[in-house]
């Protein structure tokens, strides 16, 4: 019943709120992006959309690329959220999951709530690589057909998320980022000068133009060192909307370095601002990426407590009000299990953002549901900016993942795909 009330409230305002929510992501400095899909024993996507203050949720991962994937298809891994069934091409089992019914059900719920759902490519696993420029362009075309708007042209080719359309694509490329120019003719002339993942990102931009009814986003999650070995070319040559810099797991440029010594030149946020200002989209938003728990970091020292995060955010939001976009976290389940003062780590981060951000509008009120591991919630009514939609607190619990007789090939909790 709680969800029915929530759904009714959303429908009543969706005509205005959803469109204004998506539009303001590009100007807000208080956005919270949290990766989901690789948490151990993670709850459903809808749980995090209904019960948290997350704004942008990259779903991870497409962790195998067509050059390595069986049958020439990419491979996917979303932890415990799929039943192990895969698409079959020419009698060969691929590694692209087809039985992700819970995600299929949950994406529209999240989008009605104003959440931006991205599909993330890559991750920490070493198993993906694009071999040529041709592969990059064709891979982008495949993902657009499989996860973008459903078209007659795509026919009965794979649609892992059914009729759902993601809001964009995220590049979490952590190795094998260099490959050659496009050996193709008949494509846009600017592709002839692009290298690496810039080719693929540029191809996405071209395909986005085919659907003017919806705003699509591109994001990148580079390491904090500059230049980033994998994504420098793409960020420098193609228009991205969000840059989720991983300011953790790297000594010398991490957020921990700034916390230990704010006067140190090691923390690279200033340099990343320069990269963005010299890119095709100087208005792209820069996020401070952090681990959401001690376990989410490679080493405990890279985790920051909320009290350590607060001055960091205050300093850089004030210093770069036009470029600062918010906080990115790895990842949702770690955040929920890391309860601080009765709130998840993510909700703590959102409150920090609001404490320094612009005044909250008074036209739309939203309830922040503070979830705990015992399923009790402690709602706190606040007035959110237009990057969120009106929600009512709910205490529903996540449903158990569906299974089938073929679920013995489940991809539950594959730790190698973490960042």
From TrEMBL:
Chain intervals with Low complexity compositional bias = 362-419
Q: Which GO terms describe its cellular component?
A: extracellular region; plasma membrane; side of membrane
Which parts of this chain are annotated as the region Disordered?
355-419
Q: What is its EC number?
A: 3.2.1.14
User: How does the protein associate with the membrane?
Assistant: Lipid-anchor; GPI-anchor
Matching PROSITE patterns, A to Z? GH18_1 (PS01095), GH18_2 (PS51910)
What PANTHER family would the database entry show?
ENDOCHITINASE, ENDOCHITINASE A
Q: Which family does it belong to?
A: Belongs to the glycosyl hydrolase 18 family. Chitinase class III subfamily.
Role according to the record: May be associated with endosporulation.
Q: What is this protein called?
A: Endochitinase 2
């Amino acid at each position: 019943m709680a969800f029915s009330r929530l759904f009714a409230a959303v429908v009543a305002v969706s005509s205005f709120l959803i469109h204004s929510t998506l539009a303001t992501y590009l100007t807000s400095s208080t956005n919270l992006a949290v990766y989901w899909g690789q948490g151990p024993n993670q709850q459903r996507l809808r749980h995090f959309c209904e019960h948290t203050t997350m704004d942008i949720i990259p779903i991870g991962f497409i962790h195998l690329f067509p050059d390595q994937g069986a049958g020439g298809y990419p491979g996917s891994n979303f932890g415990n959220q799929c039943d192990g069934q895969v698409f079959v091409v020419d009698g060969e089992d691929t590694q692209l999951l087809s039985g992700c019914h819970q995600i299929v059900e949950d994406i529209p719920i999240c989008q009605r709530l104003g959440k931006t759902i991205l599909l993330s490519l890559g991750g920490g696993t070493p198993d993906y690589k694009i071999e040529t420029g041709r592969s990059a362009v064709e891979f982008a075309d495949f993902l657009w057909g499989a996860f973008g708007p459903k078209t007659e042209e795509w026919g009965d080719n794979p649609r892992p998320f059914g009729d759902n359309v993601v809001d964009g694509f995220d590049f979490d490329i952590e190795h094998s980022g260099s490959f050659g120019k496009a050996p193709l003719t008949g494509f846009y002339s600017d592709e002839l000068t692009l290298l690496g993942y810039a080719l693929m990102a540029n191809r996405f931009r071209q395909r986005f133009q085919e659907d003017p009814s919806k705003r699509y986003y591109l994001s990148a999650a580079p390491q904090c060192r500059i230049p980033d070995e994998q994504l420098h070319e793409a960020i420098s040559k193609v228009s991205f909307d969000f840059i989720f810099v991983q300011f953790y797991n790297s000594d010398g440029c991490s957020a921990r370095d700034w916390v230990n010594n704010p006067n140190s030149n090691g923390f690279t946020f200033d340099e990343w601002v320069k990269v963005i200002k010299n890119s095709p989209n100087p208005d792209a938003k820069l996020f401070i990426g952090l681990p959401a728990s001690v376990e989410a970091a490679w080493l405990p020292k890279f985790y920051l407590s909320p009290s350590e995060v607060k001055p960091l955010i205050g300093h850089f939001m004030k210093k770069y009000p036009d470029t600062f976009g918010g906080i990115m976290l790895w990842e949702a389940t770690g955040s929920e299990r890391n309860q601080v003062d009765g709130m998840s780590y993510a909700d703590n981060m959102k409150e920090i953002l609001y404490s320094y951000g612009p005044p909250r509008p008074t036209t739309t009120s939203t309830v922040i549901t503070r979830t705990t591991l015992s399923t009790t919630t402690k709602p706190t009514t606040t007035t959110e900016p237009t990057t969120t939609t009106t929600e009512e607190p709910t205490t529903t619990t996540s449903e158990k993942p569906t299974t089938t007789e073929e679920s013995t090939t489940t991809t539950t909790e594959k730790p190698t795909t973490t960042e």
